[in-house]
Design brief:
This is N6-adenine-specific methylase. This protein is an alpha/beta fold and 211 residues long. It has five helices and eight strands, in the order H-E-H-E-H-E-H-E-H-E-E-E-E. An eight-stranded mixed sheet has the order 3-2-1-4-5-8-7-6.
């Protein structure tokens, strides 16, 4: 793989061993073109794999880049890949579900590329909405197969004011999250783009109603 544009354009990126489905060159170029200028924006790459999406963001001037990947077997190649960047790119080796539940830093752009057979894509988006990762202007992009049917609007994971009920556990095995740092009623899909046999859905926080 190669970086498609920006200051690192043409630089080679290695693929880690094992099963990996890197984002197509055409898709990466199209997505970042649609995002527009991202210089200085923070970028979170969930299910990062090779780290190529974070590197595409770095190549275009993003800052505060974090990659999340649970497979520690990819560590050597990921560290080799991010070494091309001048920016400080951090990697968290942990399950994405745990990162969403526990991380307290917010991001301007969040990209998710879960395995196509991952069953809990909707729950990921619900828990993202209920996490501390979002601001009112965060943009969320999720890559998923055409066979999946993600809704136009997404509500938060089950919440109980001030507490989490003992039975409040979602399908990805983590307690339902109470916080909603974006102050949003939900996520709304603003776009959906087709790439081969897959979609990339674009979501943004839906403004909460005035108190």
């Amino acid at each position: 793989m190669r970086i498609t544009s920006g200051s690192y354009r043409g630089r080679r990126i290695a693929c880690p061993p094992g099963v990996i489905r890197p984002a197509m060159d055409r898709m990466r170029e199209s997505l970042f073109s649609a995002l527009g200028p991202i210089e200085g924006l923070s970028f979170l790459d969930l299910f990062s794999g090779s780290g190529v999406m974070g590197l595409e963001a770095a190549s275009r001037g993003a800052a505060g880049i974090r990659l999340v990947e649970k497979d520690i077997g990819k560590k050597r190649v990921m560290l080799q890949n991010i070494a091309i960047a001048d920016q400080d790119i951090r990697i968290s080796f942990m399950p994405v579900e745990r990162f969403i539940r526990s991380w307290k830093e917010h991001f301007d752009i969040i990209y998710l590329d879960p395995p196509f057979d991952y069953r809990y894509k909707l729950q990921l988006l619900e828990n993202l909405l209920s996490s501390r990762l979002l601001t009112p202007t965060t943009r969320i992009l999720i890559h998923y197969p055409r066979e999946d049917n993600l809704p136009d609007r997404i509500k938060p994971a089950a919440r109980i004011s001030g507490t989490v009920a003992a039975s409040s556990t979602n399908a990805v095995g983590s307690p339902a999250i109470v916080a909603n740092a974006a102050g949003a009623d939900g996520l709304i899909r603003t776009d959906r783009r087709e790439y081969g046999r897959s979609w990339v859905g674009w979501y943004v926080p839906e403004n909460s109603s005035p108190a």
